[in-house]
From TrEMBL:
Protein name: non-specific serine/threonine protein kinase
Gene Ontology molecular function: any one: small GTPase binding
Lineage: Eukaryota, Metazoa, Ecdysozoa, Arthropoda, Hexapoda
Enzyme class name: transferase
One GO cellular component, as annotated: cytoplasm
């Protein structure tokens, strides 16, 4: 569920579905009388169909008769803990099923808003927000969720007295948030979930986040030399891996008349195909011979490997047996040496006491009879004082030992305190160094930020300059184009004016020539008129005069036109000179503008290169800033960790100082007690000296001492008998445990042998199956090129034979497993019976000892041991009943598998009958083809 929430944005209809399933799961747990106490997305799984499963019941606890849990520990994940669970640490200690509904409200908040409602940087901050949930709970208003969802979250994240679900799950189920057209609480398991995970198999873990491998070295704990008895419940059992029978799917048989439809129609082709079939059969035979040879070689190798494996297992068995026997002999030798040492100590003590008593008796018998009463009285007082003195000396020795132990503990605590102080000093130095490094990094970061800001400002300034230059370049370019167009228009106008000037010059020259010719003609006419025609008519003169006037008018007009043209030509020449000057000026400006453009281009390239360099520097600076930020966060984390470690060390130092002060106070008290005991001891010595002067009741004391000696001898005999019986019972128990361990080791070796044989058989079968499949594939490929129908029948036949063999192998495997299971149950039953015998044997020995000794303390000890053994026996019986239930379940599964296998056998028989029918059809077709060939030969 956690990966689903991290991969998708959960819409409201998805949240409705998953919340309904969580409500049903929690209701089931609550009806069973338990509280989960750790509801969170990490403990929610999706099955292969997409339905939600609640997991991790490690913190689950049963509620009492009043529906409440009494606990003084805050259990659960900090961000999902309810306020009443937190209050249980301070002595409240009672909460009910409503703590799970609080966690569901936190999960629902996380589904909708993608974050936790009471998250803080520290655990104390988180707990403070949870306790102040009335003020710290904030539902973002910009989130696109309904008002029903908001009311449901508020109903869950409130006080326990007004929390939704406190008065039953119906209060939650009737909430309007769950009203929809798709899902109800009744049809939820039968409906389709919103997300169905894609799985490649039962072991597909692609939907989970990858877990980093733990590279730390594996911890190896030393094997204890003493017998612990941890594995006694598993005596008679063997461990096997997941065993799954191969489910082979049977192929469907083709239609019966498929062969008739594909039957060859020509006899020649049939003969050719038969020849090819014979050749293929020969190749198949050769391949089968090669396969047999290879199988023989493989069998020889497997036999050799099995022999080597058996030899290695025998050697391992011998080695384990030798190790076991060595351990047993070593243990027995230690037990015997310990018993011998104890008996020697008892004998020495008894001898010393007897010698003392005899010496006292002889010494006191030599004294005078008149002081017997005084002696007896003083002897009694002396023995009392000696007992007190011995007790006081023992107390003094104990106090000295305790004082030495306290001194050692004080030295250890002082040493630890010094070490912790030195470690604290190093940590403080490391913290100071880290803080200095953090300040340096912060200064560097500030400097880098300033440089980055300066670079950004320079970059923005350069971009502004670049924009102004580009606008100026565009303006100059437009001006240059405008000047070019004006220049081109003026050049065109100048050309036109030059053409008009040339034409006007030509017209002027033509008019001048005409005028000269007409003047010449007029003069000649006038002369001729004067000479030859003086008598001409006045009308002709008038006509000539008018004509002359017209010619004068035309001449004047021509002169005016010529003057106008000359004036225009001068004006055009002036305009032309102005145009030339303007053109030269424009060309100069054009050159200047081109030079400016080239300079701007170079400047633009420089600015672009600067911009690229600034961008690269900016990217480098940003990467360095990111690296520095990551380093800063890492250093901050390390500083927090070091602070936590420092706080822990300071707490430990404070505790050690408190314990040291308490030890000092205890040491002072013990010294005062020791001084008081020494003072009392001196007083007792004085009383003893005074009492030695009065020896009146010596005979009575001697009689009492004689009786005490007899009682001590009797107690010694009882203690020896008890020690012998305990040693005998212990040796019997250890022998039974050793036998059980030996049987366990043997069973483990047998299990290893069976597993190795099973693996070798599987490997052999798989290799043979692969070889057969390869050969079969090659042969089938060759035959399929010639006769497709025949090849299909052969493949079908082989597949059915493989399935039949596999079914037989599976049947044998199931029978072997059944026998193994029966054997294991017998072993378990025998182990339990032996354990009961040992327990009953111990009970019998304990009762016998109690009758002999009659001591109340020994009786209580034996009764406690008896109760403990009975509890272990009950546990073993419960385990045995649980195993019987498992065995019955496995028997039911086995019966189901046998039924499935019988069904498979029936299907195989049906397939065999179909194969026989197909073979008969094949024979009929071959006979028909041979008959057709005979008829063709006769023809």
């Amino acid at each position: 569920m956690f990966s689903l929430m991290s991969m998708y944005e959960i819409p409201e209809n998805w949240a409705i579905f998953y919340t309904m399933e969580i409500v049903l799961a929690l209701d089931t747990i609550h009806n069973m009388g338990f509280v989960h106490r750790d509801v969170k997305p990490d403990n929610m799984l999706l099955d292969s169909m997409g339905h939600l499963k609640l997991a991790d019941f490690g913190t689950c606890i049963r509620v009492g008769a009043d529906g409440l849990v009494k606990s003084s520990n805050a259990v659960g994940t900090p961000d999902y803990i309810s306020p009443e669970v937190l209050q249980s640490q301070s002595g409240g200690g009672e909460y009910g099923r409503e703590c799970d509904w609080w966690s569901l409200g936190v999960v629902l908040y996380e589904m909708f808003f993608g974050e936790l409602p009471f998250y803080a940087d520290s655990l104390v901050g988180t707990y403070g927000k949870i306790m102040d949930h009335r003020n710290s709970l904030n539902l973002p208003q910009d989130a696109d969720i309904s008002e029903n969802a908001r009311s449901l979250i508020r109903g869950f994240l409130t006080d326990r007295n007004s929390r939704l679900g406190r008065h039953g799950v119906d209060q939650i189920r009737n909430h309007p948030f769950f009203i929809n057209d798709t899902w109800t609480f009744e049809n939820l398991r039968e409906s389709a979930p919103p997300v169905v995970p894609e799985l490649n198999g039962d072991d597909d873990t692609s939907n989970f986040e990858d877990i980093e491998k733990d590279e730390s070295p594996e911890e190896l704990f030393p094997v204890p030399k003493t017998f612990a008895g941890n594995h006694l419940p598993f005596v008679g059992f063997t461990y096997t891996g997941d065993y799954q029978l191969l489910n082979v799917s049977l192929d469907n048989v083709d239609n019966r008349e498929s062969y008739r439809n594909h039957r060859p129609s020509y006899s020649g082709e049939i003969v050719r195909l038969e020849k090819l079939l014979e050749n293929e059969r020969q190749t198949v035979e050769t391949l089968e011979k090669q396969e047999k040879a290879l199988r023989n070689q493989v069998e020889i190798m497997t036999v050799r490997e099995a022999e080597l494996q058996s030899m290695s297992t025998e050697y391992e068995k011998e080695l384990t047996m030798l190790k076991h026997s060595y351990r047993e002999t070593h243990r027995r030798a230690e037990n015997e040496s310990e018993l011998r040492r104890k008996t020697e100590l008892l004998l020495n003590e008894t001898k010393k006491r007897l010698d003392e008593e005899q010496s006292k008796r002889t010494r006191e018998m030599n004294n005078n009879q008149q002081h017997n009463d005084r002696i007896n009285q003083l002897e009694k007082q002396c023995t009392d004082i000696q007992d007190k003195y011995r007790m006081e000396t023992e107390m003094c020795q104990k106090l000295k030992k305790q004082l030495n132990e306290l001194r050692l503990a004080r030295n250890d605590t002082e040493q630890k305190c010094n070490e912790l102080q030195s470690l604290l000093g190093t940590l403080q130095e490391h913290r100071d160094a880290l803080q200095q490094e953090v300040t340096e990094l912060q200064n560097r970061l500030a400097h880098e930020r300033n440089t980055r800001q300066q670079l950004v400002e320079a970059h923005e300034e350069n971009e502004g300059k670049l924009q102004t230059l580009s606008t100026e370049f565009e303006r100059c370019f437009h001006r240059e184009q405008k000047h070019m167009e004006d220049n081109r228009a003026l050049s065109e106008r100048l050309g036109n004016l030059e053409k008009e000037n040339a034409t006007l010059d030509l017209e002027l020259k033509a008019m001048q020539q005409r005028y000269q010719q007409e003047v010449k003609a007029h003069e000649e006419a006038a002369r001729s008129q004067k000479v030859y025609k003086e008598e001409a008519n006045m009308e002709e003169v008038k006509a000539l005069q008018t004509k002359l006037n017209e010619e004068k008018v035309g001449r004047q007009r021509a002169e005016q036109n010529s003057q106008e043209k000359e004036r225009q030509i001068s004006m055009l020449s002036v305009d032309y000179r102005q145009m030339q000057q303007r053109l030269q000026k424009l060309e100069g400006e054009n050159r200047q503008e081109t030079e400016k453009v080239i300079a701007l281009h170079s400047q633009l390239d420089q600015e672009q290169s600067k911009k690229n360099s600034l961008l690269s520097e900016l990217s480098l600076q940003s990467s360095e800033i990111a690296h520095l930020k990551a380093k800063e966060t890492q250093l901050i984390k390390e500083v927090h960790q070091l602070r936590d470690m420092r706080r822990k060390f300071e707490e430990e130092v404070f505790k050690i100082k408190n314990s040291h002060n308490q030890d000092i106070l205890q040491n002072k008290e013990l010294q005062e007690q020791l001084e008081a005991e020494q003072y009392f001891h001196k007083l007792q010595k004085k009383q003893c000296k005074d009492a030695r002067d009065e020896l009146e009741e010596k005979t009575r004391v001697l009689q009492e001492q004689e009786e005490e000696r007899k009682s001590l001898v009797h107690q010694l005999q009882i203690a020896l008998a008890r020690a012998d019986s305990e040693a005998l019972a212990r040796s019997i128990a250890e022998e039974t445990v050793a036998d059980l361990e030996k049987e366990k080791a043997m069973k483990e070796f047998e299990m290893k042998d069976l597993v190795a044989k099973h693996k070798s058989e599987l490997a052999h079968k798989e290799s043979a199956l692969l070889v057969m499949k390869d050969v079969e594939y090659d042969v089938n490929m060759k035959l399929s090129k010639k006769t497709v129908e025949l090849d299909e029948q052969v493949q079908l036949n082989k597949k059915l034979q493989d399935e039949l063999s596999q079914v037989k192998v599976d049947k044998g495997e199931i029978e072997r497993l059944q026998a193994k299971l029966k054997q294991e149950t017998l072993f378990k039953q025998s182990a339990v019976n032996k354990l009961e015998e040992v327990i009953y044997r111990k009970d019998f020995a304990n009762t016998a000892k109690n009758k002999k000794v009659g001591s109340a303390t020994e009786l209580r000890k034996k009764e406690k041991e008896n109760r403990r053994l009975k509890q272990e026996l009950c546990q073993e019986r419960d385990k045995y009943s649980h195993l019987l239930v498992k065995f019955n379940e496995s028997q039911i599964n086995l019966n189901e598998e046998t039924m499935a296998k019988t069904k498979l056998q029936m299907e195989i028989q049906c397939k065999d009958t179909e194969i026989e029918m197909l073979q008969t059809k094949l024979n009929e077709t071959t006979s028909l083809s041979s008959a057709e060939n005979d008829t063709e030969d006769n023809q």
